[in-house]
Amino acid sequence: MNTSRRLPLIVALWISAIAIAGCSLGFPDGREDCDGYPYVANDVLPDTVTLRLGGPQFRFDLAEAPVFKHTEGKTLSYRGAASDAEVGNVFVAGGVLSVIAIRPGTTLASVSAFDDCEKRTSANFLLKVITP
Question: What total of structural domains would you count in the chain?
Fold first, then answer.
């Protein structure tokens, strides 16, 4: 078989492989509306959040600065997490980051912004919980 006859077969196999993998030509996320990505717009979160056990929680409005934006202006959703969930609870509700002390210790915490295509970016901080 010469090269000119093989090319259509190679192209057909390549397109079939992409279709089987669930991808869409030209759209890496498989969706036409997955343009852009979230990014940290304002690095205003503190490097370290120190809480006293039994004291008030830390709250931060992510939209106020805003901390995160999307290159295409899409709406973002947020998730918070702590590496050691026994030290503190980190969560986002209504666009407000909340951190609650659970027990004394230090852990890495983060808040992530996601678009509807699950593209994300994160901002990290150190969480220290101390005794009163």
Answer: 2
